[in-house]
Structure formats: C-alpha cells, structure tokens
Write a structure and sequence with these properties.
Elements (H helix, E strand, L loop, with lengths): L12 E7 L1 H4 L3 H11 L4 E2 L13 H8 L1 E8 L7 H14 L6 E6 L4 H6 L2 H11 L4 H15 L4 E2 L6 H16 L13 H12 L8 E6 L6 H12 L5 E5 L2 H22 L9 H12 L4 E5 L5 H8 L10 E6 L2 H6 L4 E4 L5 H13 L9 H10 L4 H11 L4 H13 L3 H12 L3 H14 L4 H7 L3 H10 L4 E2 L5 E2 L2 H14 L9 E3 L1 H9 L8 E5 L7 E3 L12 E5 L9 E3 L12 E4 L6 E2 L8 E3 L7 E2 L7
Parallel strand pairs: 1-2, 1-3, 3-4, 4-5, 6-9, 6-10, 7-8, 8-9, 13-14, 14-16, 15-17, 16-18, 18-20, 19-21
Antiparallel strand pairs: 11-12
Helix pairs in contact: 2-8, 3-4, 4-7, 11-12, 11-13, 15-16, 15-17, 16-18, 19-23, 20-22, 20-23, 21-22
Length: 622
C-alpha cells in the first residue's frame, strides 16, 4: 500500500462505506447512504451481495485510497467477512499516515468493548473466520479492530434512535468536509455582503426552478473567490455538484468536446466518460443531468459557445439546480439570457486595508512601525483584491525599511504581475475595440460617456463593448470610470507598442508632448496629444512643420489646470496649419486670432480664454 499525504492524494470520494452486507445493507447502511447523497456527499458503497475470493477487488482498494472519510459500520457479523477485515486493515493503515483517511466508526448493535477485545457474539463471528487463517494475518486483524474500537465514533446502543444517529453522523461528516470557517485570506473581508447580495438571485429555497446566476466584474476583483465560498457553503445540499475552473483556457487549448467531457467527468467522478460528436455531447448532458439536482460553478467563461455547450437551456438539468457562471463579459451573459447577474465591485479603502492587513500579517496585529506603511501599500491596489494579494506576497517577511524601498518603487509604477493579469481582458478585444480602449485610457477616463462616444469613431458601440468586458463602468452621473490600474495598464500598452519611443506612440501625454514638439519629431503614428501647459518648463514656439507629419492626429488637448496661469505655447500665425483629421481641438489660451483648420470631421472645439476672432478661411467674427 502506497503511503500518501493530502498534498499528493487525489480525492474521488468524500466517503467510503465499509459494512457487512447481510447485517446492514437494508437497514442502517441504506439510511446513511441516502442521507449522505441528499447532502451532496459523494459516497462509495459496494453493492455486491456475494464475496468472491479472499482478496478484495481492485475497485474497492482504489475507492478506499481516494476517499477522504471512511465510515465503518461495525455489526455483529462484520468480523466474519474476510473482505470487511481486509478493508478495515487498509483503512486503518491509511489513517495512520499524514493527511490520510479520516475514520468514523459506527458500532451498530454491538458493543465497542466487544470489538476492542473480540469478545461476545462479535468475538464468536471473528473466531469462525480466523480459525483457518495464518497467525500473522490474524494478529493484524486483531490490532486494527482494537484501534478502530478506540476511536471516537457512534454507538447505536446509546443513541436516542437510529434516525437521530444518522443525522449526527451526517452532521459530523459535513463539519469535516466543509468547515464553517475558511482559511482563505480573501474570504474574511466583505463576504457577508456578497452573500446577502447573491441570496435573492440564488433563491435557494426554490426547489422546482432551475436558476442560472452570473457573477461578473473586472479581472482580479474576487469573482472566483466569491464562487468558491458559494460552492463550499451550498454545494453539499445538492446530490451532484462540480466546480469547473479555467474554462477559457481549457476551451482554447482542447476544444468543446473535451470541456464537456471534463464537466461530466467531474460531476460523476468518472474519468472515462465518452461523448463522441459535439451533438452527442449535448445529448449526453441532457440525458445524464436532466433529472439531477446540480450545483455547478463554471469559472472564467469568456465565449458564448462555452456556456451554450455546457448549459444551453434550464431543461438540461433537474429541478432545483443552480448554475453559477463566472465571467468578465457581461455581454456574454446578456447573449445567453442570464438575467440574474451579480456585479462585483472593488473594495473601499477601509475593507482594502483590512484585507491587506489580514493577508500580510495573518489576521494578527500590525507590528510596530508598519501602520503607515500598511496604509500606503493598501492604497496602491485601489481596492482590487488581486493587486492587494500581489503586493502582499512581494512584501512578505520584509522589514519596515525594505517595505519603504519597495513602496517607493511601486508608487512610481505598479507591479508587472498586475499588468500581466489585467492584460488578458484587453487581449480579448477586437482590434478596433483595442484602439478605443487605449484612447479612453489615455484621454477620456472620467469624461461623460456621451462626449467620449461622440469623439471616438463609432464610439457608442465601442464604449458599450468596453463596459460589457468589464474594462470600464458608467457612473450614476454618466461618466466613464476606468479603474486606475487598468488605466495605467492601458498607458503601458501604448508605451510597449511604440518600443518606448515617444514619436512612435499612438498617444502622447505630459512632458513627452513638449519634447516631441520642441524637437519637431512628430510622426503619422500619433493620434492624440494631451499636455498640461502649466507643467511646461519653458515657452515653446510651434513651427510650421510641427503638425505637418502628424496627419492622423485626431485629438489635440492643450489645457491649463490653473486659470491664473498663462500658456507658454506659442503658434506662429504665418506658418501654422492644424491637422485635417482632428475630431477634438481643446486649446486653452489659444494665441491666434484665426483658426488654421479645415476639417470635415471636427466634433468638439474648445478654446477657453482664446484670442480667436475669425474662423480659418471664413470671415465670421467670433
């Protein structure tokens, strides 16, 4: 027998039932098995009525080795069976190793002391079996019988009745399989609020309705953590259940047939499910689950085909089933007509600080000298749980002085792991939507959605796509709200695609705009310029050729954030000409009396405190 630990053993069953069939199959064992199934506890019960040979079958060996608990129902004639004694020997050997099987004995109409000493009628049954066995084997059996009798278990002779004893057994197993208190760091903060919000969508008390519930939100916001908590809390109430993670990756690498096979294999704990064609797969799901009450979590769904392939219609599942879909794509849920959707938002500052403290210091008190550092570190994540966890891992076991150095670095630029994680949502966009995302990240975050939509080409549809992909939200006031870390990730993408060469950037902001204009190195790659003229180091005279090479420039934003500070940007009137593709021209303290622009696509013109008197090529007085 291989010695296994909880880190290497793969559980297939929650419970292995060991019992003497003629004594208990039609009474106590049937009640225990039914009660376990009703609570969603996956149980192995051997239904063979005849024992052939002295060695137990390989199937039973594998079942024992892959079970978390063994419920050993010891009856008067239990020890009269070689199979029972061999099962018990294996179970007790596994119980002795680290992370091994947990054993729950039930002494059914037999006294524990008789089992311990192999006395009374139990001893008589044992003697009848061992009379022709080798002494070495008999000694092993006596040892394991003594050990199991010394374990804490259930004695039918001292229980109120058998029904109560069965309830006690099931409750004990539930407590062991599904602890009430989880040790996951993220679960300690805000989970009660999430459960309250999901309660009305799940309607667990409804036994007839099949409910699909979506959990949506940006990457790293904690959707999977919430789903895992839901699964631990509710799945035990369902006869069949599964948690399928990484659906997007599995679908991309192995396709829908494999994904369906994984779905059914995990539900029925059968690695040898055979589906055949794609159509046969849907028929198999319907036929095998149509009468089953299922609790399923489908994590990281990013294609409509994935959801339709696994759970197209409620009629595929039995009454009372709950299908939980985890996705960043709200549009996917709409397309699949999932009406019950729970949006997950970032944590507020107080909860973010509490979570970061718990992750960093295991829920204990904050050490002296770390209080202010903890606040600074938690604020770097801007309420995003994934970022909180990432920063905490990086700061783990460091001194206060080391924290200070690391925080100074991260306050300049976030951890690269965070950008890499968030980038997957961007990679799922179409090429045109990617461009819109970069424009919003660099120019229009915080602006009213109607304004941004009018300035972007086909902007209404593109902004709607960004909302559906959980890359932006729309505030109650109608403004675009892109998370700070997502915005910074978008700007980093602009830098990456230009190899960090300013004149090759799609969009320029800050002092890089000043440098490109000063050196007159603009190119046709540039689509947007955003410059706070209050931050300019010196007066800049824009020459004739400054905008000539920027033929694709669509958004030109020269602004001052201080009304009493004058512009340092000068435009030579005799030589100036603005790009024809401009859709937005915002120029505070515009210096000229005329506007050297001829554009058929201009959407917005803002010239605060300007000297403008006449439009370009037009005698109209302003």
């Amino acid at each position: 027998m291989a010695s296994s630990s909880s880190r290497t053993r793969l559980w297939k069953y929650d419970v292995f039932l060991s019992f003497r069939g003629p004594d208990t199959r039609k009474n106590i064992v049937s009640h225990i098995y039914s009660a376990l199934r009703n609570k969603g506890i996956f149980t192995f019960k051997d239904d063979r009525t005849l024992e052939v040979g002295n060695s137990i079958p390989d199937e039973l060996v594998r079942a024992i080795q892959t079970s978390r608990f063994a419920v050993v129902v010891i009856s008067e004639n239990y020890a009269a069976s070689t199979w029972c004694l061999e099962e018990l020997r294996m179970i007790m050997e596994l119980q002795a190793v680290e992370g091994g099987i947990s054993v729950v004995p039930i002494f059914f109409r037999v006294a524990p002391c008789d089992v311990r000493h192999q006395s009374g009628s139990f001893g008589t049954a044992f003697a009848s079996r061992v009379s022709h066995e080798k002494a070495e084997k008999v000694t092993l059996w006596r040892t394991v019988l003594t050990k199991v009798a010394n374990l804490s278990g259930f004695d039918s002779s001292v229980c109120v009745d058998e029904a109560t004893m069965v309830e006690d057994v099931v409750r004990h197993l539930l407590d062991g399989l599904f602890p009430a208190h989880t040790t996951d760091d993220e679960d300690v903060v805000g989970m009660s609020r999430h459960m309250e919000g999901l309660a009305s969508l799940l309607e667990m008390e409804s036994e007839e309705e099949v409910r699909f519930v979506g959990i949506s939100g940006m990457g790293g916001v904690g959707k999977t953590t919430i789903a895992k908590y839901l699964y631990r809390r509710f799945s035990r109430q369902f006869p069949v259940r599964c948690f399928i993670d990484g659906i997007a990756k599995v679908y991309k690498e192995k396709g829908l047939p494999y994904l369906r096979k994984k779905f059914l294999s995990q539900i029925f704990r059968d690695e040898h499910v055979s589906l055949g064609s794609v159509g046969a797969g849907s028929d198999e799901i319907k036929s095998r689950l149509g009468h089953q009450k299922l609790f399923a979590v489908l994590d990281d769904v990013d294609q409509v085909e994935q959801l339709l392939g696994l759970a197209k219609f409620p009629t595929w599942f039995g009454p009372g089933s709950r299908i939980i879909i985890i996705t960043r794509d709200k549009g996917l849920l709409d397309a699949c007509r999932v009406k019950n959707v729970y949006p997950v938002k970032c944590l507020d500052q107080e909860d973010a600080l509490q979570m970061f403290k718990h992750i960093s210091f295991g829920g204990g008190p904050c050490p002296d000298g770390f209080e202010k550092l903890l606040i600074r570190a938690s604020r770097l994540a801007h309420g995003l749980p994934y970022a909180l966890h990432s920063y905490s891992l990086h700061l783990h076991r460091k001194t206060a002085e080391e924290w200070e150095k690391v925080l100074l670095e991260f306050e300049k630029a976030p951890h690269t792991n965070i950008f890499h994680f968030l980038r997957s949502s961007y990679e799922g966009l179409t090429p045109r939507d990617k461009i819109a995302f970069l424009h919003v990240a660099c120019l229009f975050n915080g602006h009213h959605v109607l304004r941004a939509s009018s300035l972007l080409f086909d902007g209404g549809r593109k902004v709607r796509h960004l909302v559906e992909k959980s890359l932006v939200d729309i505030s109650a006031q109608g403004c675009i709200n892109m998370h700070v870390l997502v915005e910074e990730m978008g700007r980093e993408l602009v830098l990456e695609e230009s190899d960090h060469i300013p004149e090759r950037q799609r969009i320029l902001w800050g002092n890089k705009v000043y440098d490109v204009l000063l050196d007159n190195i603009g190119t046709e790659r540039i689509e947007g310029l955003a410059l706070d003229m209050c931050e300019m180091p010196d007066v800049l005279h824009i020459e004739d050729s400054s905008f000539r090479a920027m033929r694709k420039l669509k958004f030109l934003i020269f602004y001052t954030h201080l009304d009493d500070k004058r512009s340092k940007l000068e435009l030579l009137q005799h030589a100036a000409r603005l790009p024809r593709m401009l859709r937005l021209l915002h120029w505070d303290d515009y210096p000229l009396t005329i506007l050297p622009l001829s554009s058929a696509v201009l959407v917005e013109l803002t010239l605060r405190r300007s000297n403008l008197r006449t439009l370009w090529n037009n005698d109209m007085v302003i």
